[in-house]
Design goal:
Blueprint lengths: L11 H6 L13 E3 L2 E11 L2 E8 L4 E3 L4 E5 L4 E3 L15 E5 L8 E9 L9 E10 L4 E6 L5 E6 L6 E6 L3 E3 L1 E4 L3 E12 L6 E3 L3 E7 L2
Parallel strand pairs: 1-5, 2-8, 5-17
Antiparallel strand pairs: 2-3, 3-4, 6-7, 7-14, 8-13, 9-12, 9-15, 10-11, 10-14, 15-16, 15-17
């Protein structure tokens, strides 16, 4: 298993209090990740429980989801294709912000990684990633694109949540993460699987991912 380095981030109020400065209650400091390969959903299974975390693959550092703010920079902005297969994103030509399935060095490259889950622990080595709820100013979608440009929708907030999709234990997944408007989003996820030894389904605690989509 990869060695885990957790960074303890003091709330901004606590940090500034050490310098004799006070801030409003609730102010906090988050690590901002806006480019490079990041597993926005990293999955481990340790001591009988799931650990859902963020893995900054560039620096090989792991964080709790509450410690991170993901940013979709203005360069992520594009338009919904005219192809009717993409209508789940909105009307053709509408603005859309996409963190792409294929790496763009200037943008965040979001992955989902379950390399820290050993084979054989879960039935068929299958894990379910569930998007429980989304809060934000626009629609939210996760979808894959095949070699012919056709989309396969994994998550679509526009037709109701929760949505879920599978990832293999020990596996890794990249897809397109799309946002329908600029602003702040909160995406709550959880992970589950059926234990091979007992046929019991185990489920992680909910983890909320925080995104800022820049105009």
């Amino acid at each position: 298993m990869r060695q885990i380095f957790r960074l303890l981030l003091l709330p901004a109020a606590a940090t500034l209090a050490l310098a004799g400065v006070t801030t409003p209650a609730g102010a906090s400091t988050r690590v901002v990740l806006d480019q490079g390969h990041v597993d926005v959903i990293g999955v481990a299974y340790v001591d009988g429980a799931f650990d859902v975390h963020v893995h900054d693959a560039v620096n090989d550092v792991e964080y709790a989801p509450s410690e991170v703010k993901f940013v979709a920079k203005p360069a992520a902005k594009t338009t919904v294709p005219a192809d009717p297969a993409y209508r789940f994103l909105g009307p053709a030509g509408a603005p859309i912000w996409v963190l792409p399935q294929v790496q763009d060095p200037a943008l965040l490259w979001p992955g989902i990684g379950a390399e820290e889950v050993a084979p054989g622990v879960f039935t068929d080595d299958s894990l379910q990633v569930e998007v429980v709820r989304v809060a934000g100013p626009g629609g939210f979608d996760i979808f894959g694109t095949d070699a012919f440009g056709s989309p396969a929708v994994l998550v679509d907030s526009g037709d109701g949540l929760p949505d879920q999709f599978a990832i293999d234990a020990g596996g890794h997944l990249h897809a397109n993460w799309a946002f329908g408007a600029a602003g702040n989003y909160w995406v709550t996820v959880r992970v589950s699987g059926v234990l091979t030894a007992t046929s019991e389904r185990v489920t992680s605690a909910p983890a909320t991912l925080s995104f800022k989509v820049e105009q």
